[in-house]
Amino acid sequence: MGNKKLITIAMSLFLASSALAGCSGGNNSKNSGAPASDAPASSEEAVSTEPVTFTYYNFQSRGKDVMASETTIGKKLQEQTGVDFKLEYLVGEADTKAGVMIASGDYPDLIAPEDQIDKLMDAEAFIPLDELIEEHGPNIKRVYGPYFDKFRHTDGKMYILPYSANQGYIGDPNISQGAFWMQRSVLKEFGYPQLKTLDEYFDLIRQYKAKYPQVDGKDTIGFAVFAPADTFYNVQNAAMHLAGFPNDGGVTIDLETHEAKVVAGTDNIQKPWIKKLSEINAEGLFDAESFVMNKDQFMAKVTSGRLLGYFAYNWQIGEATNNLKAADIDEKRYAPLPIVYSADIKDQYVDPPAFVNNRGVGISVDAKDPVRLIKYIDNLLQEENQILVQWGEKDVTYSVDENGRYFLNEEQQKNRDDTNFKLSYGFQYFEYGWPRYGSNSLLTDGNSYGVGNQPEVAAAGFTEGDKTLLEAFGATTFSDYFSDPDDRPWYPAWSINLGQGTPEQIFSQKSDDLQKKYLPKMILESPSSFDALWNEYMGEFNKLDKATYEATMTQKVQDRIAGKW
Amino acid sequence: MEKHTEPVIQTSRGAVTAQTSGLQLFLKRLVQQKVLVLMSVPFLLWLFVFKYVPLWGWLTAFQNFKPHKSFSEQKWVGFDQFKILFSDESFYRILRNTFVMSSIKLVLGFVTAITLAILLNELRNIIFKRVVQTISYLPHFISWVVAASIVTTVLSSEGIINVLFMKLGLIDGPVLWLGKGEYFWGILGITEVWKDVGWNTIIYLAAMSTIDPSQYEAAEIDGANRFQRIWSITLPGLKPVIVILLIMNLGHILEAGFEPQYLLGNGMTADYSDNLEIFVLKWGMEQSNFSLATAAGMFKTVVSFVFLVSANTIAKKMGEARLY
Amino acid sequence: MSKSSAARSRYNSLQDRIFDTLNIIFMLCLVVVTLYPFLNMLAVSLNDANDAVRGGIHVLPRMLTWENYEYVFGEATIFHSMFISGARAVIGTIVSVFCTAMLAYTVSRQEFVLKKFVTIAFIMTMYFSGGLIPNYLLIRDLGMLNTFEVYIIPGLIGVFNMIVIRSFIEGLPEGILESARIDGAGEFITFIRVVLPLTVPALATVSLFVAVGQWNSWFDVFLYNSSNIDLSTLQYELMKILQTTNTSNSSQSAADAFAGAQGGVTAVTPASIRATMTIVASVPIIIVYPFLQKYFVKGMTVGGVKG
């Protein structure tokens, strides 16, 4: 009896307090929203170089939390502006962090939202930058001016400054993206043939494996795709590349009609690739563990010398390629190859100049002094400071030859490779994650903006084996023997925002789930059951709303071409 | 409740006037037991603040909750979130997976932990016993990322399991253990046992320490053998703890965890490995649909209570220890 | 009669010996299976990180090095965070176990008028949660963000632990509590003087659970104290190191489309750091455990009281 009463009291108290808690939760962000936009006008005269500290939060774990002034670069920027930053990076779950940040309405001054951008935009966490740039941002205008229309929000205002505003263009000399990789001993064995088609590629692997069925006493592995659940897109994307398309993210876009077509379930793009894998699996050339191994296991295979070829993105397995390079056994290293279905297809492995409009940095509604922040950013975008964040100081972290070309001497290169140096100097914190030139930019003096893209730096990094290989292929760099990317003004289509919980987004999730389920099955079961499985897969796939998805993607691509990003 | 307390009160307090009303009686006892009240009510307040106040969050299950908006600005959507949950074609498969996986975990977990505790208890050498016990609980401290990696290695085509099974002639060629949905539950169950069996024995070992040793002596004199002693002394001694833990864990029947499924599962096993938590992650958190996660949480709570109350009632009927 | 009992005891001893042998063999297998992951972590943590990428390391390092440990302990914050973790574990365990035991005692008393209400109110909370955001807002509104208390207060009572202690108290031989009360001890004194000493195995068990939870926790740091480095815990700092290693090793991700600097040859890899942090974080617990084990010795409590 007493219980009931107590429960009633408890319930009413709980309801009262819940209402209170609910209100206080929301109010906060509202309060903070208003004053921010007034700030520029009122604090105009107050702007000075008097010391101030702001907070910076990045939704990616790029470094340890540190005061910017504790790094060499941060210190120099502080001397110029008086501004210091408390730099914080994500630890743990980004979704959770974003949710909590939004719910509490307590935002850091500057935020690099990374993949949480939609949530933060939705929560109106950023202030529009248009007026601030107009008044205080001559350098911002110079760098971002040509791109302004590409990163306006649906309301026509700019909220973040993206990372990829290229100034001029220089390609990456190395292949850091996806490719069909082949162990160099295979290429060497057959006199460095110029492989073009998938059949030629597998044929070489077949011959080599027949000749050398074992490596160091263990069975040779023909070919693997690094495709466990979280990198399954490797097996999906390979088909796109084979058909001569760059990675537009699950769709191919026709160069003429600009029509977006879903790759999944296509008879001409996905089917031949899966069917081919099923055939080589029956021959014993395919590594069935492709879909179950984790990264450590894949890297162990790559470094074992037993794996003859694989498809993966190079940045996925940096430790393995580093290990091979350090081991200095050239034949065990891998060469990227621009493989396509048939010789008449032009390969498109190298990314076209891209403008990624949904990754960048924005000023939050809680920012204490947006004018100081925008001025800091503007100062950062001065060319000399852009050189500072990428190359550092002349004669300290980089050298200049008599022709004005930048290069790294041995010690400078060593420092570059040393994470601890990169942290203490500040490259790790400043070379990315801030408003900047795009990575493929050229400086006004003709040197590359990104250190890795400077031909001199790349060439100095080539081993003897690299040089032999490049000579045999008649190329000066690795990207040299890949086709140049075609002009694709919408690129990359994968950055198109489909919105949360929309039919397009549900299609994309469900289609992924279906592919994850069926593609490995088709590959691993005997080729005789391939057609039946393919039909079953298509039966399921046709239930999804592909038409809406394609229509939306086509529309968005056309919008982008028309300059409406 | 009243029934329960009556006899004790009467013995200690003599005749309680029968004419006092229930409330008066309640208050009177409250005063009499003021020390006990003081020892527990502060914690009730704590409980209310930290556990019950946040329950306002449940209301968000009926909203399209946007964390930046104030409570009054939220859009109410009724049972839409529940509809997303229950109308998804994969929901019932996911529910099945969740039930099966947590049932396996429950049954295997109990049987193995109790067995191991008893076997440890039967070891004569105290040092050996302690060493084994300490080592057996080590895997508990290995993160799932590491544990999953070890399992994948052990089950790889050149891993020890395939090599062993091939030597024994059980299989002709290497089996892709993690690529077959039918094996997933078994692999998961064994992995969970391996990781936590040692840790789970701790509570049973502690419970055994309260069994009166003279009972064993008496049984020995009566000529009872090892198994008889285990059967008639150790197990009955553990029964209350076992029953209580069982009831509590039955309440967690929809919590199968998500890390091992996420790390060991893949597209080929998804039909068996996807569970409620992965579903919520995929359709809730990743798409910042906080309301869906809350709705799923409420659904879990309802199921939990059903199981909890049933288990407790059954225990009560059977005259066993019970939770409340 | 004496003959038959002798025969039986001999039969028993043979059976016993078989049982003991099998039991020991089983335990040795168990030791192998459960020790392996730990030895494997130890070997990887002591092995050159770049070499470890090749795999194939089991229980012995191939290229011995202290580099991974130097890297982890090179972080100035590690020692302070260890201190915080230790403080959490000690203070949190003492406070929580005492409070939980006290509550458990009250709900173990059959005549306590609020027994059922309190029990049910607590048990229910094991099966629901208002969700992450309401919890966060509560802590914020209580002014507990960036405080040490947030490690102790919100998790003050473990319901599971309360039930464990309660069932131990209920399992105590009848009469012990009764006789204490007849001696005139009040409820609180009974609890301190009689109940606590008698439930040592349960308290030791629960202390272990709480201490391990406190020592390993990072989520509350992440949620409530992430911007206060002075209150950071070991696990959280280790996670930071791990995640930094992760990104610096693959300095580019697909979403970045970042073709600038290439990942350098670092001395550490995520795998080696993960192994090292497993060892660093779990060794203290492993050292503490044997000290608790003595409280699990068979028959200690009851025998002690009766004697």
TrEMBL record, chain A:
Cited InterPro entries: Bact_solute-bd_prot1, SBP
Signal peptide extent: 1-21
Report what the protein is called: ABC transporter substrate-binding protein
| Alphabetized PROSITE patterns for the sequence | PROKAR_LIPOPROTEIN
State one Pfam family annotation.
Answer: SBP_bac_8
Q: Per its UniProt entry, which superkingdom is the organism in?
A: Bacteria
Print the keywords alphabetically: Signal
Automatic annotation (TrEMBL), chain B:
Gene Ontology BP annotations = transmembrane transport
Which Gene Ontology cellular-component terms appear in the entry?
A: plasma membrane
Record's signal peptide: none
Q: Which domain of life is it from?
A: Bacteria
Q: Does the keyword Transport apply?
A: yes
Q: In what residue span(s) does the ABC transmembrane type-1 domain sit? A: 95-311
Q: Note the Pfam families from the entry.
A: BPD_transp_1 (PF00528)
- Subcellular location, record wording: Cell membrane
Q: Where are the membrane-spanning stretches?
A: 35-59, 99-120, 141-165, 290-315
The membrane topology of this protein is:
Multi-pass membrane protein
What UniProt keywords apply to this chain's record, in alphabetical order?
Cell membrane, Membrane, Transmembrane, Transmembrane helix, Transport
Q: Cross-referenced PANTHER family, in alphabetical order? A: BLL4140 PROTEIN
Provide the family line.
Answer: Belongs to the binding-protein-dependent transport system permease family.
* Designated name of the protein: ABC transporter permease subunit
Please give the organism. Answer: Paenibacillus soyae
Q: What is the lineage of its organism?
A: Bacteria, Bacillati, Bacillota, Bacilli, Bacillales
Automatic annotation (TrEMBL), chain C:
UniProt keywords, alphabetically:
Cell membrane, Membrane, Transmembrane, Transmembrane helix, Transport
Family note = Belongs to the binding-protein-dependent transport system permease family.
A cellular component term from Gene Ontology for this protein is: plasma membrane
ABC transmembrane type-1 domain: from which residue to which, for each copy?
82-292
PROSITE patterns with a match to the protein in the record: ABC_TM1 (PS50928)
Any matching Pfam family: BPD_transp_1
Q: Where in the cell is it found?
A: Cell membrane
Domain of life (superkingdom): Bacteria
Q: What is its main location?
A: membrane
Q: What is this protein called?
A: Carbohydrate ABC transporter permease
Q: How does it sit in the membrane?
A: Multi-pass membrane protein
* Spans through the membrane: 21-39, 78-105, 117-139, 151-169, 190-212, 273-292
**Which InterPro entries does the protein's record reference?**
MetI-like, MetI-like_sf
Example GO BP: transmembrane transport
